[in-house]
Amino acid sequence: MARATEEPGVEEMKDVESPPHTEARGATETTDAREAPTEEETFEEEQYEVAPDIPDDETAVVVKRRPLYRRPAFLLAAAVVLLVAVIFGLRYWAYARTHETTDDAFIDGHIVQVSPKVSGYVAKVYVTDNQQVKEGDLVAELDARDYDARLEAARAALAAGLARGREAQAGVSLTRATTRANVQQSSSG
What we know:
Layout: E1 10-12, H1 39-47, E2 48-50, E3 61-64, H2 72-98, E4 122-125, E5 140-142, H3 145-188
Antiparallel strand pairs: 1-3, 2-3, 4-5
């Protein structure tokens, strides 16, 4: 009377009422007063598939299916998807920490125009980009070769001027002496 099965996942069920089956599609149930299956019955029907109509003398064989979330293939696929999501999430987080991205940004900076009192080529810079400075800090050093040349030219001009001054002084002394001699010569004569 009982049928033995050797298939995995198939259990032999005795004394299980099978839901009423109709012979034609779309036919309605006339023997039962129920209008719609309850939630519990629907859940039971989802978990168990009843074999097609069998004669009354044999036991109904019910196939029990695991829910989708308990199947090994589904769990493995979910673990792989989760692992890939975590890896890509960590890579994006590491990238986003070091790279600034924006669609419509602008930089707001406090820029101060620095102009020297003299012009020249910069020989050395004492500050770096975006370094805070205050009044009196040495920012850059200008190339001194042009200024050294101008200084030497000014010293040479000074020396020449002093020499002309001494020459003029000597000329004044000579002119005084000559003028006195001329005055004495004119007054004696």
